[in-house]
Automatic annotation (TrEMBL):
Residues 11-67, 68-118 form the HTH myb-type domain. The lineage of its organism: Eukaryota, Viridiplantae, Streptophyta, Embryophyta, Tracheophyta. This is Uncharacterized protein. Pfam families: Myb_DNA-binding. Its main location: nucleus. It comes from Trapa incisa. It comes from the Eukaryota. The keyword RNA-binding does not apply. InterPro entries: Homeodomain-like_sf (IPR009057), Myb_dom (IPR017930), Myb_TF_plants (IPR015495), SANT/Myb (IPR001005). Keywords: DNA-binding, Nucleus, Repeat. GO terms for biological process: cell differentiation; regulation of DNA-templated transcription. GO terms for molecular function: transcription cis-regulatory region binding.
Length: 210
DNA sequence: AACACCGGCAACCGCCAGCAC
DNA sequence: GGTGCTGGCGGTTGCCGGTGT
C-alpha cells in the first residue's frame, strides 16, 4: 500500500503519520550504532522529530532485520487460527510463534481476513441443523493475570464483538491459566505451546479418522 | 467520468507492568 | 511505600486504493 501522506504534527510539535524513507534510514542507522533501547533517547538523539513509542513501533514492525511481510502462508494461517483459539487476542504471543511476523501484522491479518473467514464458517454452521450444543465458554488466558482481559470468552458478545462471537471454541474447554504458568512465557517459555499444538494435531487426526 | 462505499493496513492511543529512585 | 519513567501490549482510528454503481 502506498504510504500515508506525512502531514500533521502532534501537540508537542512531533511528526506524525507515515514514515518517510529518510526517517527510516535515520532510525535504522541510529539503532545499528547504538542499539534498540531507550526509545525516548533514540527519538531525541537520532534527530527524528518523533516520539519514542513511534520509533519503537516503526523499528519492530518494519525496520527490524529478518522481518517477513505479506504472503501469509496456509501453514501460518492455520497456526494463527489455532493459537488464537488457545490464547485469544494475545497477538504478541502468537507472533512469537511465527518467526519474522509482528503482532501488528497478525492482528491486522486476523481482523481483516481470519475474522471474516470464521464468521462465514460459523454462519454456515448456524444454518445447518443445530445438532451440537455449544460448549460452555472456556476462560481464556489473560496476560499473565493482569489486564482484565479483553478476551474472556464469557464476554464474547461484548468486548470482542464480532471477532469473539465468531469464536466459540468447541473442542478446547479449559482455563489455560490453570494449566500453564504464564510467568514462564517468553521466547523460551513457549515449549508448552509446541506441546499443545502437537497434542491438538493428534486430536484432530484422531477425530478425522473417526 | 464521477462519486460512494468498502477493505486493508500503518500508525496512534490508552492502559498497565516493571523498574529505578 | 510512593512516584515517575519507560516499554510492551491490544484496541482503535483514519488514510488510501480498489471496486461498484
Amino acid at each position: 500500500m502506498a504510504p500515508r501522506v506525512n502531514e500533521g504534527t502532534s501537540k508537542k510539535g512531533m511528526n506524525r503519520g507515515a514514515w518517510t524513507h529518510e526517517e527510516d534510514q535515520k532510525l535504522s542507522q541510529f539503532i545499528q550504532l547504538h542499539g534498540a533501547k531507550r526509545w525516548k533517547t533514540i527519538a531525541i538523539k537520532s534527530g527524528l522529530n518523533r516520539c519514542g513509542k513511534s520509533c519503537r513501533l516503526r523499528w519492530l514492525n518494519y525496520l527490524r532485520p529478518n522481518i517477513k511481510r505479506g504472503n501469509i502462508s496456509n501453514e501460518e494461517e492455520d497456526l494463527i487460527l489455532r493459537l488464537h483459539r488457545l490464547l485469544g487476542n494475545r497477538w504478541s504471543l502468537i507472533a512469537g510463534r511465527l518467526p519474522g511476523r509482528t503482532d501488528n501484522e497478525i492482528k491486522n491479518y486476523w481482523n481483516s481476513h481470519l475474522c471474516k473467514k470464521l464468521m462465514n464458517k460459523n454462519n454456515e454452521k448456524a444454518r445447518a441443523p443445530a445438532q451440537q450444543q455449544p460448549s460452555p465458554p472456556a476462560k481464556e488466558a489473560s496476560r499473565s493475570e493482569p489486564r482484565e482481559p479483553t478476551t474472556t470468552s464469557d464476554e464474547n458478545e461484548g468486548t470482542n464483538g464480532p471477532v469473539a462471537a465468531a469464536l466459540n471454541p468447541p473442542e478446547i474447554n479449559f482455563n489455560v491459566n490453570e494449566l500453564f504458568d504464564f510467568s514462564m512465557e517468553g521466547c523460551h517459555g513457549l515449549d508448552w505451546v509446541n506441546r499443545f499444538l502437537e497434542l491438538e494435531e493428534d486430536g484432530l487426526m484422531n477425530s478425522e479418522r473417526r
